[in-house]
Design goal:
Protein name: TonB-dependent receptor
Number of helices: 7
Number of domains: 1
CATH superfamily: TonB-dependent receptor, beta-barrel domain
Helix content: under 10%
Subcellular location: Cell outer membrane
CATH topology: Maltoporin, Chain A
Keywords: Cell outer membrane, Membrane, Receptor, Signal, TonB box
CATH class: Mainly Beta
Pfam families: Plug (PF07715), TonB_dep_Rec_b-barrel (PF00593)
Radius of gyration: 28 Å
Family: Belongs to the TonB-dependent receptor family.
CATH architecture: Beta Barrel
Length: 807
């Protein structure tokens, strides 16, 4: 799609959407909704002493009305979605819930939603906050997988489209703020119990309980949740190699991939008002994942049809080529503790917040590969390896903020933020010490045995290259912001200066590296209430994206990029971006909202792989050409701050009842994001990696009051995405995802709900072009391919039956 046709389609869609919104609003629906009501601002509910509203457990268990997207009255462009908006479709995790909000995409495996990609950008461009605070995760790109937190813990989700001086600036694409239930948002208790049925007949339990009420001088909320996690997938890969301008079949791989585990979570909050001007809040949450992932891959020399029978045939007959087995035990745990003190006095409002968060990741992997594709009747070749990965990531932070009036309706806010982050990585591996005995080989049956169960003997564990290091990161930020309301305008403008000092200790090589940098991040937002229905928002902000941990580790990894090597760069600076958001929003009836938003981001100092010109893998730089003069050197590549990129798009969202046409018990919702971008790399122009062209979601909820019942459906689809890195180019496509629910309510204390997800047997398809050298990838011809691969992955439907009871 050309840039001109893209914007033409976007403009036509915007006009049509606005016209439809105006038509929906044809009937007069009364005054503007107040904060805490559908369509009102809820961002600050319960945030001030003696303020906020309390939700009873009966209201949570029995939803008397359909939940809609809320409006936010602050200057920033924020979309607010209460738990009522998601709950009826029974999302298991926050990632599942986010599939129904605008502009969020995933490149996860089917029926999984882990790394959220706001506006289709890599997860590292999206800032994930829990109760307004960043949390550490195991991923080298600093991301936190949202499938680790059960949706049951969530009070609301806020999509922050632009940035503010109040928050850290790691939000090029925007921020997702996950607000957990607190003591001032629950009165009474409720329990949930049920089961999840998967396509292969496996059943997993789901249980949880939450309670909130007065305890001593304050209010306490405490809750916990246990749910089984299971994902049985089937994959098929077809691989080809070039042969005189055509692709010749090489092998077919059939893979079973099953992820089986249990998630445990707990959340607690205690809030006490001291007098009429001070509030103390203590909180914490804990999440643990205990999971086993097992992959069994069998390669055959037949392209279609049923796999050949076992035992293995001769090398020139149909038969089994390889047997690969991977068994991975995962134990991940994270917790966060925080304390907040807010005080109102004659000089304004002062807030102090202290937090500590820690993440532990322990993975034990055993991999076994057996190669039966041998010449001249040689015996099979066996390889086995064990890997041990231990990651500890902890963060201590202190934030101080003071707000005071400087004129009528205008406040000045000043503050500071300190963070001390430590990340220890210990990855080691051990190979098998000796080949299997002849007896073990003869008794092995690929049709029934698992290779990882064979009695291998392994060497001592030794650190892998780049896998034994410590990273210490110290941050000190200061900010100044002025905000107010003038006539129809609610506005804010501020400056934030972030300083970072990074120390990297490669303990394997006994080397230490330092890097420090400072970034000035201006921001400004305005919201114009043109009427009690119409408003315009506009924002401009500078943000940043910090380098991934694996990119600043100085180790050199051989063959990491095709046949080329990858060397880390401890002197990497963060990427920075200027962003603009402009939106229009219209109230529809008493509860509905329709909106359209245009965004643009210009990213500078992009981190891209650069050919250093140094030969890799101990190659001689003077011996880099074959007999035809073609460059076949293997080089060392290094991430560097080079070039720039830009991304832009338009986002639509609609959430409303059909009361204005006489259907008050019918709610509809939908959203659409059209996205484009441009980056230049060594191979020319491309989009941001993994960014789809579009993503949309639409659905409805129908309440049947006379029967105390309801039902609904939602459908989601995202467009194809492409990735291009050194040595590999990938195109990824997904099928559509259909979900439905049916519920029955009993009085005001019990709801039983059945849901079905992935009802279209969702499939993920990937097309790989793989290259060995840079020149081969530049030529982009069939004969220069190292391998062409088609991979497909699918999983069956998932059904839940959940009961909730208030007490």
């Amino acid at each position: 799609m050309t840039l001109g046709s893209y914007w033409l389609r976007s403009t036509v869609a915007a006009i049509a959407f606005t016209a439809a919104s105006a038509a929906f609003a044809g009937a007069d629906a009364g005054a503007e909704a107040t904060a805490g009501q559908p369509g009102g601002s809820v961002t600050d509910q319960g945030s001030e002493p003696n303020g906020g509203s309390i939700t009873t457990s009966n209201e949570i268990v029995v939803q008397a009305t359909i939940g809609y997207r809320n409006r936010n009255d602050d200057a920033e462009p924020v979309l607010v979605y209460d738990t009522d908006y998601f709950q009826r479709f029974e999302p298991l995790t926050i990632g599942d819930a986010l599939k129904r909000v605008p502009g969020v995409t995933f490149l996860s495996d089917v029926i999984e939603s882990d790394g959220a990609r706001l506006r289709g950008l890599d997860p590292s461009y999206t800032q994930i906050l829990i109760n307004g605070d960043k949390v550490p995760g195991a991923n080298a790109d600093r991301t936190f997988f949202l499938d680790r937190i059960p949706a049951e813990q969530v009070e609301r989700i806020e999509i922050v489209r632009s940035s503010s001086a109040r928050r850290t600036g790691d939000a090029v694409a925007g921020s997702l703020n996950i607000v957990l239930r607190d003591a001032f948002e629950l009165d009474g208790g409720y329990a949930k119990a049920g089961g999840i049925l998967f396509d292969d007949g496996e059943v997993k339990p789901v249980v949880g309980a939450f309670w909130g009420g007065q305890v001593g001088p304050g209010r306490l909320m405490i809750g916990g949740n246990i749910q089984g996690r299971y994902n049985p997938k089937e994959k098929e890969s077809l691989r080809y190699e070039p042969d005189d301008g055509e692709l010749e079949f090489v092998n077919r791989e059939d893979q079973d991939d099953t992820r089986d585990g249990t998630d445990y979570s707990a959340n607690a909050n205690y809030t006490v008002d001291i007098g009429t001007s001070t509030r103390l809040e203590l909180g914490g949450f804990y999440v643990r994942t205990d999971r086993n992932e097992h992959e069994r891959s069998l390669e055959y020399n037949v392209e279609q049809g049923d796999p050949p029978p076992l035992p293995i045939g001769e090398s020139d007959e149909p038969g089994l080529l390889t047997d690969a087995d991977q068994d991975e035990d995962i134990d991940q745990a994270s917790y966060s503790l925080s304390g907040k003190l807010r005080h109102e006095w004659s000089l304004g409002k002062t807030s102090l917040k202290i937090g500590y968060a820690r993440f532990k990741d322990e993975i034990r992997t055993t991999e076994v590969g057996i190669d039966f594709d041998t010449d001249e009747g040689d015996p099979p070749e066996w390889e086995a390896e064990r890997t041990r990965q231990d990651i500890r990531d902890s963060e201590f932070s202190v934030g101080l903020e003071h707000e005071f009036p400087v004129a009528e309706g205008i406040d000045l806010v000043i503050g500071g933020f300190y963070q001390d982050k430590d990340r220890d990585t210990d990855i080691s591996s051990a190979e098998d010490d000796d080949e299997l005995s002849e007896a073990d080989r003869l008794t092995y049956d690929p049709s029934s045995d698992s290779p990882t169960d064979l009695p291998f003997e392994f060497d001592e564990f030794e650190p892998v290259t780049g896998g034994f290091n410590t990273i210490e990161e110290r941050r000190l930020d200061g900010f100044l912001m002025i905000e107010g309301k003038t006539g129809i305008a609610t506005w804010e403008a501020g400056l934030r200066y972030e300083t970072t000092d990074v120390e990297i200790d490669d303990r394997e090589e006994d080397e230490r590296f330092d890097n420090d940098y400072g970034i000035l991040l201006p921001s400004a937002s305005v919201k114009l209430d043109l009427s009690n229905r119409d408003r315009i928002t506009a924002s401009i902000a500078r943000t940043n994206r910090r380098p991934p941990f694996d990119f600043i580790s100085p180790a050199t990894l051989e063959g990491e990029m095709g046949d080329n090597d990858l060397r880390g760069n401890p002197e990497l600076d963060p990427e920075t971006a200027w962003g603009i958001d402009v939106g229009y929003e219209r109230r529809i009836g008493r509860t509905g909202v329709a909106g359209v938003n245009f965004f643009y981001r210009k990213v500078n100092d992009l981190i891209e792989m650069v050919n250093t010109g140094e030969p890799g893998n101990d190659n001689d730089v003077d011996d880099c050409q074959d007999d035809f003069g073609k460059d076949i050197c293997i080089f060392i590549f290094e991430p560097q701050n080079v070039g720039d990129g830009k991304t832009w798009g338009v986002e639509f969202d609609l959430s409303t009842s059909l009361e204005f046409i006489g259907l008050p018990d019918t709610g509809i919702f939908g959203n659409l994001a059209l996205i484009d971008s441009k980056i230049r790399d060594d191979f020319g122009s491309r989009r941001f990696n993994g960014q789809p062209e579009y993503v949309y979601n639409f659905g409805f909820i129908q309440d049947i009051r006379d029967w105390a019942a309801a039902f609904g459906a939602t459908y989601r689809k995202q467009g194809p995405a492409k990735d291009r890195t050194i040595g590999e180019e990938v195109k990824t496509t997904y099928g559509g995802d259909l979900e439905i629910f049916v519920e029955k309510r009993f009085g005001n204390w019990l709801t039983i709900r059945a849901t079905g997800s992935n009802l279209l047997d969702g499939a993920k398809k990937e097309e790989f072009h793989k290259y060995n050298t840079l020149d081969e990838q530049l030529s982009h011809t069939i004969d220069d391919l190292d391998e062409y691969e088609l991979e497909s992955e699918k999983a069956g439907p998932v059904f839940q039956l959940i009961a909730r009871a208030a007490f």
